[in-house]
Every structure is written in structure tokens, then in C-alpha cells.
Amino acid sequence: MEHRTAPSLAEAQPPGTQEATGPDPPREPGGRALSWPAPESAPAPAPERGPVSGPTEPARKRKHRVRRLLARILKLALAMAVITELAAVSFIWFTPPRTAFMLQNGDPIAYQYVSLNHISRYVIASAVAHEDQQLGTRVGAFSFDDFRDRAVAYLQGKDDPSGSTVPQQLVKNIFLWPEPNALRKGVEAGLATEFSFTLTPQRMMELYLNYAQFGPKLYGICAASWYYFNEPPWSMSEHQAAELMGVLPLPTLVTRAPEGGIYLGPGVHPKVWDYVNGAANVWVPRQIDGLGGWKAAAATIGISDTASDHAAERGSANPDGCASYPESVLDLLRREGIALDRNGSPAPPAG
Fold first, then answer.
1. The pTM is what?
2. SS3 159
3. Is 288:294 a contact under the CB 8 Å cutoff?
4. What does 82-130 look like in DSSP terms, one character per residue?
């Protein structure tokens, strides 16, 4: 009998599978194959992580720079507030002989200070009625609604619907410049607010009437009353006071009539005629009537006396009385070719 041996594992496998199956796995004694242990996979690398919390170094530096900038801005704002408040306080008793507007206009100018005691109450009433009827009753330098409406009108290129108040005009004349740009308006609003909370309405009116421009080289009510009307500011009439209110919007276009007064004759600028004639005959009388008369208008800023009550204080010994022609006004008249008599007063026209 032929003896046959069992085929080997390689012979028992189908052709072409030997290499694919790889090495034989180990077997148990009974012939059962054991499985290879699964290879252990390499552990995944731990993800890279940044700082646990807090901004990065560049972010911290940026925040620090922003904080420093804000701190500097705050310090500058506080310093400016202190400086402007000190300036406002100084004007309680101090009246500088020149303002920013005067300096920008250049010398020579006609100007002399006069106390409120020696200004006609017609002038004061006219200024309240025409320029700022709420000066003595308003809290602050202006109404917020009016300021907003003016800002909107400015940005839209429209006409000013209300005009500046006396505190706004005052600080503009003292510190700022004529061009009505946004920067000036903003600075003006801040300064005017400080002045309105520091000075009394009477003091603001006194400063305003002393610094207002009434002609190309003419400043203040003392110089204006002598220049136009040949008399001191306490003697001005209601009509003269109202005429001067019409000069305020365009003082550089106004001239003196040869015989005295504001020139409104042939060749006068149309706006000058409209403003001066309108103020004297329509606007100011109507506005004063609306306030209850000139006494009531002056009383809105706490004035109940008259200039005559201070007559004893006048005279050459009182430099604030404006009792005679200021020398600067006489110089202005001479430059304009107006004849003066032997006392230094304008002579009447010949013939």
C-alpha cells in the first residue's frame, strides 16, 4: 500500500496566495491557528496650546497705549477747563484793553472803556431786546434746542435761524476769530458756557457793549456814541440806541455821515440801509414793546436804576466815565478828514 504524507500548508493554499497571506500564524497543539496581536498605534501628538488666559503681549501693549492716550486727552481737557475758568473768573473785575478781534483788525482803532453805570438804559434795553432777550433768565449760555438747530442749519448750508447769544458773541470777540467754522463754534460754545456760569448778566452786557464792533475801526459804545452822535453814551436817545443795534451785523460796511449820525444817504450799501433803518424804526421798538418797555427790558438783567443816578461819578477824574471825546476817536475823525473845532470837537459843515 502506498503511503502518502499530508500536503504542506503552502501546497494546500490556492496558487498565488502564499505571499499575500504572509507568514503562518502560530497554532495551538490541536491545530487551531492563533491570531496575531493587533499592533499598537502610536499615541496622537498633544495639540499645541497657547497661554491659558489673557491677551497676547502685543494686545496688552496696544491697550496700554490706548489707556495712556485717553489719560493724556483727559488731562488736557481738564487743564483747558481750569485755564478757561480762571480766564472767566478774571473777567469779573478785569477788562483787557484789546480783544482778539481788535488785534486781528490791526491798529489804529478807536476804543475806550466805559462803565455800565454811564451807558444809557435805552442802549442796554435795545441790546437785550435785539441781541439776547433771555440773557437774564436763561440757565447757561444758550438754549440747547437753538444750538442744535443752528448746527443743523450750518451743516446744511442754510441761514442761521436764531443767531448767537450775548455770551457767545462776547467770547468770540474776546478770544476767537471771525470765520464761522465748526471749530470756532465748538470752542465758542464751551467758553460761553463757562462765562455764563461765572459772570452776572450785567457784567456780560457791560463787556459786550464795550467790545462790540460798531464800525470798520470802531469798538465799544463809548467810542461809537462820540463818533456817530457827538455825545457821551449816557445821553443817547431811544432812536440812536436802536440804530446802533442795526450796525452790529455788518459794522465794516457802516460809515459816519459828515454832519454826524450813521450815513444812510445815496450810495449806501443796501444791507446797511435795511439793517439800520429796520432796527431803528421796526425791529427794536417792536421787541422792546414785547418785553414791556425799555425799563422792563433793562430789568431782565437786574438793572432798575438810570444812568443819571450815577452823574456824580462822571468827570475827567473818572477814566471809566467816557465824559469827553476819546483821543482815539478824534484821531479817527482826523484820518477821515472831518474838521475839528478849537476844542477838538467836529466842526459843523461849512455853509
1. 0.76
2. coil
3. yes
4. HHHHHHHHHTTT---S--HHHHHH-S--B-----GGGS-HHHHHHHHHH
Q: Any idea what DSSP says for residue 219?
A: E
Q: Cα–Cα distance between 128 and 300 in angstroms, integer?
A: 8
The grid coordinates of residue 299 equal 430789568
Q: What is the DSSP letter of 307?
A: G
Tens of pLDDT, residues 298-336: 999 999 999 999 999 988 778 899 999 999 999 999 999
Alpha-carbon distances of 245 from 112, 142, 181, 260, rounded to whole Å: 19, 20, 24, 17
Residues contacting residue 176 through CB under 8 Å, at least 6 positions apart: 100, 184, 187, 188
Below-50 pLDDT ranges, the chain: 1-3, 9-12, 16-21, 351
Q: What is the pLDDT of residues 17-62, one digit of tens each?
A: 444 445 555 555 555 555 555 555 556 665 565 555 556 778 888 8
Max Cα separation, the chain? 178
> Helix or strand or coil: residue 298?
helix
Neighbours of 84 (CB within 10 A): 19
Helix boundaries (H) for the chain: 9-12, 18-21, 57-90, 100-105, 121-131, 144-155, 166-175, 182-198, 201-211, 221-229, 238-247, 270-278, 284-290, 294-299, 327-335
Chain-centre distance of CA 200, in angstroms? Answer: 20
Q: Are 241 and 122 in contact (CB under 8 A)?
A: yes
* Pairwise CA distance, residues 126 & 135, whole Å: 13
